[in-house]
Amino acid sequence: MKPIVSSGELKKCSVKQLSEASMRKQDHPPVLEPKNWNAPAEEVAGELHAFIQEFGSFTPERFAQIKFHLLRYPGLDQESRDNICQISIYNGLCPKCDFLYMAKKCLLWYDLFKMIRWKTVERSPPCIRLAFAKKSIKNVTKFLVKANLIDAPFYKARSAPSCRAMRNWGYCNPDRYCRAMKTGSTLEYNRVRERVKLLGAHDDL
Fold first, then answer.
1. Which of 82, 96, 135, 146 has the smallest number of CB atoms closer than 10 Å to its CB?
2. Structural domain count of the chain
3. What is the pLDDT of residue 26?
4. Cα 54 to Cα 188: distance, rounded to the nearest angstrom
5. The pTM is what?
């Protein structure tokens, strides 16, 4: 089965600070268990694509409620719900899901915890490291995406969290590099860190 929407093909994630990324890659067509489904994955994908064209967006629950004939039993269990998500990922339809990267409702959200490791954030600002320790995965992801440290499929971040926002959320724990920053953008941290280190090296000469 080829993806229904080729332009939305799932990008292979790359983590610049890790040799191996663990983000979910739907490299192979999903296979549906006949005990759960009355149709193969390719047919379900076509129905999901048509559903999006008609209604503009979807959730697994709403899709299953309208397209109930595809399921062998009424309602969704965890396995059949995950099947819909896997079909969506493979066919690049996730941007149309109302639950995209919503906590505990999206398979890709769960995968962020596998993708983002300490090695990915160890040189990030202290607030980002603290957010990581407290499992505030969305704030961490926004920073890492905007800093080009990860490539999370379908993830859209308008901007990295600002210093002010991180302070308001209780994550601010400034170090000497933070105090040398001028713009209030967390993305400035690494540039300032390198500059301060370089100045310190010159002072030692």
1. 135
2. 2
3. 57
4. 44
5. 0.75
